[in-house]
Amino acid sequence: MTNEIIKITNFMMNAFIHIWPYLVITIPLAVAVNMSGASKYIKRAFDAGPITAIFLATIVGAFSPFCSCGVIPVIAALLIGGVPLAPVMAFWIASPSMDPEIFFLSVGTIGLDLAV
Question: Is residue 12 a part of any domain in this protein?
Answer without folding.
Answer: no
